[in-house]
Amino acid sequence: MRMGDVYIAGIGTHLPDRQSAEQAVAEGRYDEEVRESTGMLSVSVAGDTPAPDLAIAAGRAALRMANIRAEDFAVLVHSHAHFQGPETWSAQHYILNNTVGLPIPALSLIQGCNASVTALSFVRSFLKAGTEKTAALITAGDNFGTPVIDRWRCMNLAPLGDGGGAMVLSTESGFARLLSNGAHSKPMMEELHRGGEQMFPPPITVGEPVDLERRFAYWNRQWAQGVKPPTGDATENIREAVGQALSDAELKMGDIARVVQPHFGKPAMRNFFLDPIDVELERGTYEFGRRIGHVGPVDIIAGLEHLWRTGEVRAGEIVLLLSETPGMEAGAVLVEITRDGSDQ
């Protein structure tokens, strides 16, 4: 879908202190061969800070940068990959109350690490659907330090980090302009991340921890017994989503200065995201992400802010925001940098 009429006016992240991968290996919490394979150096760890508070810190930073009147905001959309607080409680309204502070809609968008990419497209449509208001706040936040998940061993793709991220969208102006988006899914692959686990009662409600490696191992056993696992090429989602975004913006991959993708280890980052679109590792955000860990939907926000504030992308350059989530579904958004980070 072609955009070009909405901007990112503010951006902020809140990433806590780092815990080194070497230390985790020395303490027996991380496997040395996985650390060497992924190249991950550290993860951000928030201790007992609630995930919504991480999102609030990032949201306030984005709001300060945008400097838009609260009464101009139409909606808040919050995303996360892990638990936020008490069941049946509304984290998004808590975040709204502590950021914009007005009685506007506050929504939760649950789509794993792809949620921030999807939120850009959703909120842009919301702002262009007839509202007289000109701005919206997107937030994301996760703290994976709960008893039901092992941040170092839950999945070998990357250890999990904690943090918050936020973006203010505006129909007026900003440091980056949304150009186009694309999305593609393979719903027949949803079983891959279900891994034979029961659907009711949900495993987490009866004390089962979240362990993606256990679910992948289930399919390896099934395959060995002659049962075909859910098949499909997840990288096709990446190629289709990116191709759609490029076509709608009338651009080619060679026009893209940098790619922001989830903070996975080196093999997964190459195999799942960069190699399918013929992008070398250096054009992604691996060097930044390997120091933070995979922070769910925060990754895309943090990666974009890092590139912009450090001057690794400058005015006139195009950045591809790219992610994929269990389901499987990929999303892509192209943004044009309109102002250098050094001007901020």
Looking at the chains present, what oligomeric state does this protein adopt?
single chain
CATH architecture identity of the domain at 7-173: 3-Layer(aba) Sandwich
* Rg (C-alpha, Å): 19 Å
Strand count: 11
Domain Beta-ketoacyl-[acyl-carrier-protein] synthase III C-terminal: 246-337
Organism: Amycolatopsis albidoflavus
Keywords: Acyltransferase, Transferase
Protein name: Ketoacyl-ACP synthase III family protein
Would you give an account of this structure?
The protein has 344 residues and is an alpha/beta fold. The chain has 11 helices and 11 strands. It has helices at 21-26, 32-38, 51-66, 91-97, 115-127, 191-194, 212-224, 234-249, 266-274, 286-289, 298-309; strands at residues 7-14, 18-20, 42-44, 73-79, 106-108, 135-142, 163-170, 176-185, 256-260, 318-325, 329-337. It is globular. It starts with 6 loop residues before the first strand and ends in a 7-residue tail after the last strand. The longest helix is centred in the first third of the chain and has 16 residues, at 51-66. Among the domains are: 7-173, Peroxisomal Thiolase, Chain A, domain 1, CATH 3.40.47.10; 191-224, no CATH class.
Element layout with pairings:
Layout: E1 7-14, E2 18-20, H1 21-26, H2 32-38, E3 42-44, H3 51-66, E4 73-79, H4 91-97, E5 106-108, H5 115-127, E6 135-142, E7 163-170, E8 176-185, H6 191-194, H7 212-224, H8 234-249, E9 256-260, H9 266-274, H10 286-289, H11 298-309, E10 318-325, E11 329-337
Parallel strand pairs: 4-5, 4-6, 9-10
Antiparallel strand pairs: 1-7, 1-8, 2-3, 6-7, 8-11, 10-11
Helix pairs in contact: 3-4
